[in-house]
Design goal:
This protein is α+β, with helices and mostly antiparallel strands. The chain folds into two domains: about 160 residues, Ribosomal Protein S5, domain 2 (2-Layer Sandwich); about 120 residues, GHMP kinase, C-terminal domain (Alpha-Beta Plaits, 2-Layer Sandwich). It is about 35% helix and about 25% strand. Strands 1, 2, 3, 4, 5, 6 and 11 form a seven-stranded mixed beta sheet that branches. A four-stranded antiparallel beta sheet has the order 8-9-7-10. Helix 1 packs across helix 2, helix 2 crosses helix 3 and helix 6 runs antiparallel to helix 7.
Length: about 290
């Protein structure tokens, strides 16, 4: 059995902690034979545990502690600590692992409630479960979500070769905004979501780049952001934004500008990977 979970790009400008989209990088979990103890085979680095202390198994056992240990193979092209939902993909995979091994028949909404409780906010876990664009809220330990198609657009990512921990990225944010600032920031977010849902990528892009919640504080942590944004603007992209907590920088553009922007970003010779991604419409899937 194989569990496949997509990467995700959260916030998308002003949708802070509440908006995310599933994208075409993947975590694959192959469930092999039962064993006495959990063992996870992977090549993801020495810092990733291979036993029951792995986040995958910790999550599964949090859902139900009665499942039989197995040998697991973990394969991932979702880079760690880069703002593409690597930990969320593991959490979602862990919930699905428990769901399958214990025959729990969890609904997608039940999976989302568990994942959000573990992660603390739904912006990454929701699209990892549902696929597509998901707008969510988490209030009084209750999750509400709306799944929608993302308008047709190119996602062009610059993924730096360095990590940026979410805790460090959150550390530069203010502890509060004034009432006036909060109202303004919310109005920008409202327009961004409305524009995405109605397919107006020009207005969506303007609102995404007008975020007042987090990007103005975090951009200083990602030195590549300014040159990428300048190039993307020159080539007529809709928007440039920090994916999640960063450091990945995402460019949204018309499909006919994709190759030009890709080539332009590669020509900048920044320290990282440049790639095109597409929206994943499936979310987590299980293959026999």
């Amino acid at each position: 059995m194989k569990i496949i979970v997509p990467a995700t790009s959260a916030n998308i400008g002003p949708g802070f902690d509440s908006v995310g989209v599933a994208l075409s990088k993947y975590l694959e979990i192959v469930i092999m034979e039962p064993s006495k103890d959990w063992f996870i085979e992977h090549d993801l680095g020495e810092n990733i545990p291979t036993d029951a202390s792995n986040l995958l198994i910790k999550t599964a056992l949090r859902v139900t502690s009665t499942i039989q240990p197995h040998r697991i193979k973990m394969i991932s092209d979702v880079p760690l600590a880069r703002g593409l939902g690597s930990s969320s993909s593991v959490i979602v995979a862990g919930i699905e692992l428990a769901n399958q091994l214990a025959n729990l028949n969890l609904t997608a909404d039940e999976k989302l409630a568990i994942a959000t409780e573990i992660e603390g906010h739904p912006d990454n876990v929701a699209p990892a479960i549902f696929g597509n664009l998901v707008i969510s809220s988490y209030l009084n330990q209750k999750v509400s979500s709306i799944v929608a198609d993302f308008p047709e657009t190119a996602f062009i990512a610059f993924i730096p070769n360095y990590e940026l921990k979410t805790s460090d990225s959150r550390g530069v944010l203010p502890s509060e905004l004034s009432y006036k600032e909060a109202v303004a920031a919310s109005s920008v977010a409202n327009v961004a979501i409305a524009a995405l849902l109605t397919g107006d990528l020009v207005k969506a892009g303007q609102a995404i780049q007008g975020d007042l919640f987090h990007e103005r504080f975090r951009q200083q942590l990602v030195k590549e952001f300014s040159p990428i944004k300048a190039l993307a603007k020159k080539e007529g992209a809709y928007a440039t934004y920090l994916s999640g907590a960063g450091p990945t920088v995402m460019v949204l553009a018309n499909k006919d500008k994709e190759e030009t922007i890709l080539a332009g970003l590669k020509a900048l010779q920044l320290d990282g990977q440049v790639c095109s991604l597409r929206v994943d419409t499936n979310g987590v899937i299980v293959e026999d």
